[in-house]
Structures are given as structure tokens and as C-alpha cells.
């Protein structure tokens, strides 16, 4: 009986470890959003993100796990959903991706590096792109563009890049 217990325990621990790992990796997703006016907002982390996106595809209800979505974009009277494997589907749906009626996120003041809680009416959002957390990004002090953390120099003007956020 004791031997059986010892075999079961590591499997149970592994299952718990995997589920925790997946949950936290997804909850910490960042990226950016583009407003209807064309303004780009860096998102360090989306807050209260739904686990699934519900829409209609070809007249039938479709539910997509949010972690399979790379981009949501307004497309005519519907939405273009681009998945993480690069496929784009034109669906009927909305920009509602959070538990709340608002799209909630933490953004970065790119001048001071401060993290700020923010929210926006989904009706005012043109696209949402999921990607890296802003804490992993760097910024060019000269032209203000942001780049992945592994970049050392700005490819446009060769300036040394600085972390986007103060730590
Ligand atoms: Zn630059």
C-alpha cells in the first residue's frame, strides 16, 4: 500500500505543476491594443481576461481558447481572429475579452516607466494583439520605438536601448 502511494504522488504533483504553469503563463499575457483613433497602447498585462472567446463562424457558435488567439481586429461589421498558428477567420463577435464590460489592462507610462491600471470601452478598440509583457520590452531613447528584450541597439538609429519599465 505504501509503495502504491509513493508511485501516485509524483504523478499528482506533476499534474498540479502543469496546471499551475499553464494558468499563470496565460494570466500574465501582455501585448498591445490599437484604438479606433489609431493610437497604440502598450499593455503590460491584460486583467480579468476571459479563458475563451465566443463568436459565430459561418452562422454557428464558435468558442476559441483565448490562449490560441494572437490578434483580434475589427473587420467590416465583424471581427478578424488570427490564431497563434497564423490562420485568420472572419467571425461575428465583439472586442469583449474581459470578465468586465470594459477591457481592463495595466499599461506603462513610456516616459516615466510607471505601471498604471487602465481600462477602455471595447467599442473604442480597433485591434488587440497578444504578446510579450511590457516588462520584457526595451525602448529607444531617441525615436521612442519599442523592441523585444533581446535587442541591444535600435535598428533605425543605432541608439542603446533601455528597459521600457523602471525596475
Ligand atoms: Zn531608435
Distance between the termini: 51 Å
Number of strands: 13
Which distinct ligands sit in these coordinates? zinc ion
Structural class: alpha+beta
Beta-strand proportion: 35-45%
| Gross morphology | globular
Which residues sit in consecutive blocks of at least 5 with pLDDT less than 50?
A: 15-25
Q: Please, how many domains?
A: 1
Main sheet: strand order:
7-6-5-10-1-2-8-9
Oligomeric assembly = single chain
Mean pLDDT: 84
Number of helices: 1
Keywords: Signal
How does this structure look, described?
- The chain has one domain (2-131).
- The protein has one helix at 2-27; strands spanning 30-35, 40-47, 52-57, 60-65, 69-75, 78-83, 88-91, 103-108, 115-120, 125-131, 137-139, 146-148, 162-163.
- The longest helix has 26 residues, at 2-27.
- Helices cover 16% and strands 42% of the residues.
- The chain is built from 1 helix and 13 strands.
- With 167 residues, it is α+β, with helices and mostly antiparallel strands.
- The model is unreliable at 15-25 (pLDDT under 50).
- An 8-stranded antiparallel sheet has the order 7-6-5-10-1-2-8-9, with no helix packed on it. A 3-stranded antiparallel sheet has the order 12-11-13, with no helix packed on it.
- Bound molecules: zinc ion.
- Zinc ion binds at residues 140, 142-143, 145, 154, 156-157, 159.
- Residues 1-25 form the signal peptide.
- Keywords: Signal.
Keywords, please?
eight-stranded antiparallel beta sheet; 1 helix; 16% helix; alpha+beta; 167 residues
Describe the SSE topology.
Elements lengths: L1 H26 L2 E6 L4 E8 L4 E6 L2 E6 L3 E7 L2 E6 L4 E4 L11 E6 L6 E6 L4 E7 L5 E3 L6 E3 L13 E2 L4
Antiparallel strand pairs: 1-2, 1-10, 2-8, 3-4, 5-6, 5-10, 6-7, 8-9, 11-12, 11-13
The structure holds zinc ion (ZN).
Zinc ion binds next to loops.
